[in-house]
FAD assembly factor SdhE (Winslowiella iniecta), 88 residues
Amino acid sequence: MDINNKARIHWACRRGMRELDISIMPFFEYEYDSLSDTDKQVFIHLLESDDPDLFNWLMNHGEPADPELKRMVQLIQQRNQQRGPVAI
């Protein structure tokens, strides 16, 4: 997926599981544009993960084996915590 195709990335962020949507959508909407191209690629790679894996990682029930994905999960959690609750 092209890092500049925001419509497609936005679509990929919509997971259909409320817990994931609450974590991923605000991060995309508020943080994606400020990421480096490398981090955008890592974020897109993360979106290619299965929903159960994403859920477990974002809810701290495990972590990705890939260190870059682990770093992105931590970044999502950190930025979402700093921003506070967001209504979606």
Summary: The chain has a mean pLDDT of 92. Residues 6-83 form a domain with the DNA polymerase; domain 1 fold (CATH 1.10.150.250).
